């Protein structure tokens, strides 16, 4: 593993919301940042903001880039723990914002992935995970074709920029890991409307419900 003197960390924050939630701000304020440079991109499509941030990290000769999305809350030792694994790509345990709220940890062949269940207790390899809290060694970008982050589709189904990135990295021989001991929280804004009501009714019929 590189020594502290050899590591130059960048924190990439894509500002996809029109404000910064106080919970996100507070968690970043107390985080152990390892003298990281902060790179932000504002109010564009999420894949473009991620590409802009990664390009800037390369221009700044950073060795590591960690994406911290502004709709998340992070443990104080997030960077310390992820850095300790010395992996090319490693993420925290992140969750879907909407039901079924499953962790974003997938296994199997690309486009045929399944949810990993149960979640292991220690660092484990995945086919793909989310980029809401993902640490990447910048030399990974130098070995992938640009753009690194882009939306796609497969058989008419959308594929997110995060899943696509993991696919691209694995095609080049890089492995993707998740540290399940780093528990993040995904912030949510919910509009209570007819669609939400219908979803609730559907869940009730399945015997699930919201527990109200």
The unreliable regions are none
Q: Which percent range fits the helix content?
A: 25-40%
CATH A-level architecture: Alpha-Beta Complex
CATH class: Alpha Beta
Characterize the biggest β-sheet. 7 strands, mixed
Q: How many individual helices? A: 6
Distance between the termini: 49 Å
The domain tally reads: 1
How large is the radius of gyration? 18 Å
Q: Care to count the β-strands?
A: 14
The CATH topology label is: Spore Coat Polysaccharide Biosynthesis Protein SpsA, Chain A
- Our estimate of the beta-strand percent is 25-35%
Description:
The strands form four sheets. A seven-stranded mixed β-sheet has the order 2-1-3-10-5-13-8, with helices on both faces. A three-stranded antiparallel β-sheet has the order 7-6-9. The protein has a two-stranded antiparallel sheet with strand order 4-14. Helix content is 27%, strand content 26%. It has helices at residues 22-30, 46-59, 78-84, 139-142, 161-171, 194-205, and strands spanning 9-15, 37-42, 64-68, 72-73, 89-93, 105-107, 114-115, 124-126, 128-129, 133-137, 152-154, 157-159, 176-183, 185-186. 31% of the residues are buried. It has one domain (9-205): Spore Coat Polysaccharide Biosynthesis Protein SpsA, Chain A, CATH 3.90.550.40.
